[in-house]
Amino acid sequence: MAELRPARCWRTGFFFCLWLLLFLSVASGSLVVVSGSNETSGGPAGDTPEDPHHQTNSTTHKKAFPVLSFNYQDVRKPFVISLWILLALLMKLGFHIIPNISNVVPESCLLIGVGLLVGGIIKAIGEEAPVLDTKLFFHYLLPPIILDAGYFLPIQAFMENMGTILMFAVVGTLWNVFFIGGMIFAVCQIEGMQLAGVDLLSCLLFGSIVSAVDPVAVLAVFEEIQINELLHILVFGESLLNDAVTVVLYHLFEEFSHAGTVTVLDGVLGIVCFFVVSLGGVMVGAIYGLLGAFTSRFTTHTRVIEPLFVFLYSYMAYLSAEVFHLSGIMSLIACGVIMRPYVEANVSHKSYTTIKYFLKMWSSVSETLIFIFLGVSTVAGPHAWNWTFVISTVILCLVSRVLGVIGLTCIINKFRIVKLTKKDQFIVAYGGLRGAIAFSLGFLLTDNERKNMFLTAIITVIFFTVFVQGMTIRPLVELLAVKKKKESKPSINEEIHTQFLGHLLTGIEDICGHYGHHHWKDKLNRFNKAYLKKWLIAGERSTEPQLISFYNKMEMKQAMMLVESGSAAKLPSVLSSVSMQNIQQRGSGNRRAIPSISKSREQEIRKILRSNLQKTRQRLRSYSRHDLMIDPFEDNVSEVRFRKQRVEMERRMSHYLTVPTNRQESPSVRKVCFEPEHQVFTYDNSESPRDPRARPDPGPLDAISLVSESQGPNQSREPRAKVPQEQEEQEQLKLSRCLSDPGPNQEEDLS
Amino acid sequence: MGACQTRAEHQYQDLADKTGFSFEQIKNLYQRFQQLSGNEETISRANLDSMPALANNPIRKQIIGAFFDKRNQHQDEVGSCDQIGFEQFLMVMSHFRPPNLRTTDEEKEAMRKEKLRFLFNMHDSDNDGTITLAEYRKVVEELMSKSGEIGQETAKAIADAAMLEVASINVPNMGPEEFYEGITFEHFEEILKGLEMESRMHIRFLDVDTSTMRCGKSQS
After folding, report:
1. How close does chain A come to B92, measured CA to CA in Å?
2. Residue of A nearest to B152 (CA)
3. pLDDT of B155-174, one tens digit each?
């Protein structure tokens, strides 16, 4: 049964997709998705399948009220666009359902294949296929991907390797451009290849288009192979930062090829232009990032629109940079990087999740659409195939990449502490994939007789890199035993020691007397804390040290994890049986006062837990101290299992979260509660029956509180160092009330 | 002049062998040592304390203490001294050398142990071979001391959580009655193995004499 079902699903899915493809081709044949293309030509052809419908529906008697009418023209454009996106996503879905394919072939290849298929179908029907319009690509499809990449960029790794990345991005790309351009020109000079008339500038222009490593393709392929962080950030960082070089070179050569002559002054201006483009882009991004962070400071009362600010400010950064011909990609990255720490400190947890998921969603859709369109455009576009040109382009791309990486690594390794090994170099060279940016830039070329040839060559290079290199990189990574990404849980010890190490190294550098890496990092941190955080983070979070935010985040994550696993009635695996009492000295009776953790923070954490716990509570309705009967609707649950589950969960909770409590002699009711145990006690003590069953584990199964610790009446005999505020205690007690027995005692007063 | 030169070189050779620095680096560090000590033979705690650059560092006491800690001299002595000479200064600095391309895996492993041992000594102030909860709490408190009014409770909570993590990683099946004494060196190694100490815990010791670049930045 289990084997039949996927096969059946697969077949139904396949046929459904095929039908969808056909329908889509016909429908889109009637509309070119691109603006500015002729729509009318496909009109009648697209409508003909619909005519029969129309005719059967058209009434024979006149002037009767049309009960059912058909009007496709009005909604044609959004209809087709949605259909395209739906197709793209269904394809994506399909690939993951079909077993084994996604292991061998990377998704990008499959999507291009689908694009080819759709393009073929459209062409076979005789319609004009939509082409990947440059405006569509650069304004709508590319920004989400870059924003997603920039927002979640691992800053630590990026900054540490910044020198290397810049070397590869700037010097490497320049080398590629001139090498490919020059050699292609040399090839063109060879007699008898019908390539005469391609001048040096055109070759250089072609070189500048085809040599840039593409972030979309790199992301698509590298995401799947899960390579170690260093290599990932090197190749990916290079693909992002070389945008500035590409923009400058492209515009430079384009200007020159119109002007005809190049002078030294032009060269110098080109270099200046490079700096302006890249630094200007970063600055624009930084300004928008700071604006976004500042805005998020005031959004405490309008949580719902918080994610929109992030998206809009970033998009504006991109567009503003494009206005001035600055590097839009660098602007977007800078905006995301700068905005992120402050926005994350300000927004609510839900907004954070929303931002994360929307970014992932949009970038996923964009990427899928880009690859499909690439396939469709390949079939559609005019091609001029010239064997020599194309083959030599492909070979030259490979050769120049390898030479560039090797050469640069020799230089770079002199300055690096962690040197790049030969394996690393190979992966960096092999990971230089070309993608849709090259294609779109090629489209922007002015129409001349060589444009089609260039386009064909570019498409071939793209196909080669994505298909051949994309497919073989995974087995190669396995073969060469390249280090993979290590799955590391956030560890509070590592965080403590990372900070400790940072301060230690800064101190040693100061003693040694030279200003090194750590010194500047420390200065930046202090500047950040003294000025930026005050302005950009709302409330008392602005003074929260990093260790505490890390700790809070970790606790929240683990609490959520526990709640979710608990409410799914799965037995979570116990990692260890260590709990707080193993660590703390026995008899340490001095209990602490309530620490000064901000109340709003606590409230937020509690609110989340409460909302999740209420779901749990409903499931646990069957078990109550008074009511020994199992709820008939909870068929899967038996008492014993419940108890065991709670025990395990509490053990896990006590493993993760700190506990402010003594060993409790009297048994506490083992409810799933996230309140300090004595809170439950407050409630329990007023009830008579002690539950003997609730002590399967004789140890002090400490109930959990988060960072906050509170005292209850149990310990009221001990002097309190700090008197809890009335309101807070009330709130906690209220919480305990709603968390504990959901029976009729809900409204009971606490003694 | 010549005699002084060879004697110095001889000394440097000795130091170079022991600590692994190059001649240039030793010379630069010697000049820095002279600056810090005010051209004396030894440095005292007061010399290091009075550096304004260290004033903002939350763990400066531990850092300064590490220089005067005999355990870091690799001579199996314990306790602390009041004055250190150039050789001891260099020994402490040698903990921060980076690995180079030619270091073998065993050497890297040894380097990592040495650096972790340095860190361990910084935490384990009473030298009983374990970092107890109290000591760890102190570490966290010091770390956050410059970050404003945090309150002791949070530091304690964080230290407790960290200790819990160490215990659960290293001794996962502890019964409820057992007591986890403290972090031993092996446990310490275990929890920090993800940090790749040999590559992270280093500073660049320049081969260039930078003291001339610090005009006016004498023993400040």
Report:
1. 10
2. A595
3. 788 888 888 877 777 777 76
